[in-house]
């Protein structure tokens, strides 16, 4: 079939909402040479097509198009073919026949609620009202102590100027660190100590422990200390790793005896 006839066949397909697909094989004698097929506007096969391309002859495609009536090809493509209807002209209204319609009142769209940022941690000195929460945190370390005892000890530490530092999230106490300044006969400056450090389990992973230790170190500097030491139970391996990460070294073994 000549190129002119194939072009006419493609035009006939377009008039029916179809597309003529021509084989890309240009060597005579090879499979699919001169083959054509038909697809719809979405590229779905309608006639003479398989997964690899066109399989039909131009004569068969021409016969298919010639005998394809509006109802037939519409049904084959699973669409409804309806005659075009002229749009109805809107009837003109006589002047002053009705009152002008009221303009709709614009409604405000409610903006989507913005996600609330997580609460920022804050540090401050411990207060007597923190006694109950601090007793709970001390219990988390494995030491039983009453709220009354914590309250009493806070009063004594305040007199010494060694009030613990607490960490809060949204005004809730979630951890604290103790501070202590100790003068010794064999050193030229006081020694700072961190006698206790605890962060609530639900607040861990937010760098609160680092914040508390750094606050304790700053307190020791301000009180003339040139060295700071930490007390940590032997069974708390994770705490030991944390202190090493903070730059602390193990230099001694701690002994104690009940009196």
Task: Describe the protein in words.
The chain starts with a helix and ends in a 14-residue tail after the last helix. With 259 residues, it is α+β, with helices and mostly antiparallel strands. The chain is built from 7 helices and 12 strands. The chain folds into 2 domains: 74 residues, no CATH class; 125 residues, Aminopeptidase (3-Layer(aba) Sandwich), CATH 3.40.630.30. A hairpin with an 8-residue loop joins strand 9 and strand 10. The strands form 4 sheets. It has a 4-stranded antiparallel beta sheet with strand order 6-7-8-11, sandwiched between helices. The protein has a 3-stranded antiparallel beta sheet with strand order 1-2-3. The chain has a 3-stranded mixed beta sheet with strand order 9-10-12, with helices on one face. About 7% of the residues have low confidence.
Write the layout of secondary structure elements.
Blueprint: H1 3-15, E1 19-22, E2 36-39, E3 45-47, E4 49-50, E5 53-54, H2 58-66, H3 70-76, E6 121-125, H4 131-140, H5 147-160, E7 165-169, E8 172-177, E9 180-182, E10 191-194, E11 197-199, H6 208-222, E12 227-230, H7 237-245
Parallel strand pairs: 10-12
Antiparallel strand pairs: 1-2, 2-3, 4-5, 6-7, 7-8, 8-11, 9-10
């Amino acid at each position: 079939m000549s190129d002119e006839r194939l072009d006419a066949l493609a035009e006939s397909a377009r008039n029916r909402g179809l597309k003529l697909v021509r084989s890309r094989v240009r060597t005579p004698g090879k499979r699919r040479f001169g083959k054509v097929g038909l697809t719809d506007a979405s590229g779905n096969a309608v006639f003479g097509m398989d997964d690899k391309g066109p399989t039909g002859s131009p004569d068969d495609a021409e016969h298919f198009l010639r005998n394809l009536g509006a109802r037939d090809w519409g049904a084959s493509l699973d669409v409804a073919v309806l005659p075009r209807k002229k749009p109805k002209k809107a009837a003109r209204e006589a002047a002053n026949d009705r009152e002008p319609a009221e303009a709709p009142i614009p409604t405000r769209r409610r903006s989507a609620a913005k996600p609330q940022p997580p609460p920022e941690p804050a540090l401050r000195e411990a207060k007597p009202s923190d006694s109950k929460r601090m007793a709970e945190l001390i219990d988390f370390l494995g030491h039983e102590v009453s709220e009354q005892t914590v309250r009493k000890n806070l009063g004594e530490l305040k007199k010494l100027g060694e009030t613990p530092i607490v960490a809060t999230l949204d005004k809730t106490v979630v951890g604290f660190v103790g501070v202590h300044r100790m003068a010794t006969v064999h050193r030229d400056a006081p020694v700072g100590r961190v006698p206790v450090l605890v962060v609530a389990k639900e607040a861990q992973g937010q760098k609160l422990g680092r914040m508390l230790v750094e606050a304790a170190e700053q307190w020791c500097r301000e009180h003339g200390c040139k060295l700071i030491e930490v007390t940590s139970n032997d069974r708390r391996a994770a705490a030991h790793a944390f202190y090493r990460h903070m730059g602390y070294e193990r230099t001694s073994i701690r002994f104690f005896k009940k009196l």
